[in-house]
Write a structure and sequence with these properties.
The protein has ten helices and twelve strands. By secondary structure, it is of the alpha/beta class. The protein folds into two domains: 175 residues, Rossmann fold; 108 residues, Rossmann fold (3-Layer(aba) Sandwich). The strands form three sheets. The protein has a six-stranded mixed β-sheet, sandwiched between helices. 47% of the residues are buried.
Length: 331
C-alpha cells in the first residue's frame, strides 16, 4: 500500500505467537512487534499523539520549537516527527543511554544536551536532572514541552495499540497483558481499549534492581526506557491489577533467546516483558492467552552490553579452543 509520507506508517504493526521460549503446560504468549514502526519503537505512537494533540489545541504552532527529555526511543520518535512537520527539536538525554540511541536521535535532527550519569546507570537523580533541564528550557518563548510523563495524549496513542490487539486476536480471549513501566502510557493506553467483563488482567513490570512499584525501594538499573525511580503520573492504580519485579539478568538472557530462537531481535525491556509473561503463563496454565509488546529493535543495543561480546570473552574462548581442540567446536 502506497503511503503519502512516513507518518502514515506508524501503527498497524504485526503480532506473532511465541513457539520456542514458552515452557510446556503454560499459557500462549503473543508479541506485538512495535519495532516495525518507522523509528523502530512503540514510542512513535505516543510522539505523534503528543504533537498532533498539541496542534489541534493550538498550543503548538508553526515557528515554535519542541523540547523533551528522553533516553532514546521517545527522543528518536519526536525527532522524526518534528523534522517532518518542521519544528526544531531540543532534546535532553544522558550518557546512561546507549550510543546507538543518542546517535540515532542526532541523525534524525534532534539538538542534544547530555546530562552526565556518574556511574553510567539510570537512577532517579539522573532522570530528575533531565526533567529539570527540559522544564527550564520550556519556559523560553515559542517553546512547546511535550512532557511525556504527564501528557494524557500519550494514552490516545497507545489506546490505538490496544484496539489493534483486539482486532488481531479476534476470537481469542486475552487473559493477561503485561508491560514494563516507564511513562506507563503503553499499559494504561491499552487498558482503555478493553472494556466489559472480558477485560484481561493488566500487570505492570519493573526491574528488580529498582522496585518502586513492588516494594517502594530506591536503586539504579540499566534497562533503558523503564524503571525511572518513581511512580509515573500516568499510572492509574484503578487500571492495572498488580506489579511484578523481574531480574535484569533474566531479562537479558530472554532477549538473547528471543533473537536466537524466535527471530525477534529486540531490546532489554522486551526481555523483561517476555520474562514476566512467562512467569504469568506458568501460573495461568494452558489454554490461556497473554499479550506483550516488543518495545523496540535490538539494533539500538549492540554496544551497551546486551548483544555485544567483550574482547576478553573472545580471547578466553580462543584460548579454550586452542587448549582443548578435540572437545570444543566453536561453530
Amino acid at each position: 500500500m502506497l503511503r503519502k509520507n512516513i507518518l502514515d506508517c506508524i501503527g498497524n504493526t504485526p503480532m506473532v505467537k511465541l513457539n520456542k521460549v514458552v515452557p510446556q503446560d503454560a499459557a500462549n504468549i503473543y508479541v506485538k512487534l512495535e519495532y516495525f514502526n518507522p523509528s523502530g519503537s512503540k514510542k512513535d505512537r505516543m510522539a505523534l499523539a503528543m504533537i498532533e494533540g498539541a496542534e489541534k489545541r493550538g498550543t503548538l504552532k508553526k515557528g515554535m520549537r519542541v523540547v523533551e527529555y528522553s533516553g532514546g526511543s521517545t527522543g528518536a520518535a519526536l525527532a522524526l516527527i518534528c523534522s517532518l512537520k518542521g519544528y526544531p527539536f531540543r532534546l535532553i538525554t544522558s550518557n546512561a543511554f546507549s550510543k546507538e540511541k543518542i546517535n540515532m536521535m542526532r541523525a534524525l535532527g534532534a539538538q542534544l544536551e547530555i546530562i552526565e550519569s556518574p556511574d553510567g546507570k539510570i537512577s532517579k537523580s539522573v532522570i530528575d536532572a533531565m526533567v529539570s533541564r527540559a522544564t527550564e528550557i520550556a519556559k523560553e518563548p515559542n517553546t512547546f514541552f511535550t512532557n511525556q510523563l504527564s501528557n494524557n495524549d500519550v494514552l490516545d496513542g497507545f489506546e490505538q495499540l490496544g484496539k489493534e490487539i483486539i482486532d488481531q486476536l479476534k476470537g481469542i480471549k486475552v487473559d493477561a497483558i503485561c508491560d514494563s513501566v516507564g511513562t506507563a502510557g503503553t499499559l494504561m493506553g491499552i487498558s482503555r481499549a478493553f472494556k466489559g467483563s472480558d477485560r484481561p488482567q493488566f500487570i505492570a513490570l519493573e526491574p528488580s534492581s529498582l522496585p518502586v512499584l513492588t516494594s517502594g525501594e530506591k536503586g539504579s538499573q540499566s534497562v533503558e526506557g523503564i524503571g525511572l525511580g518513581f511512580i509515573p503520573a500516568l499510572l492509574d492504580m484503578k487500571h492495572y491489577d498488580k506489579a511484578m519485579a523481574i531480574d535484569e539478568k533474566e531479562a537479558r538472557v530472554m532477549a538473547k533467546r528471543l533473537a536466537k530462537e524466535e527471530g525477534i531481535f529486540a531490546g532489554t525491556s522486551t526481555g523483561i516483558n517476555v520474562a514476566g509473561a512467562i512467569e504469568i503463563a506458568k501460573t495461568l496454565g494452558p489454554n490461556k492467552n497473554i499479550v506483550v509488546v516488543a518495545c523496540d529493535a535490538g539494533l539500538k543495543y549492540l554496544n551497551e552490553g546486551l548483544y555485544f561480546i567483550k574482547a576478553n570473552t573472545i580471547l578466553h574462548d580462543w584460548i579454550l579452543i586452542r587448549s582443548k581442540p578435540n572437545q570444543i567446536n566453536p561453530f
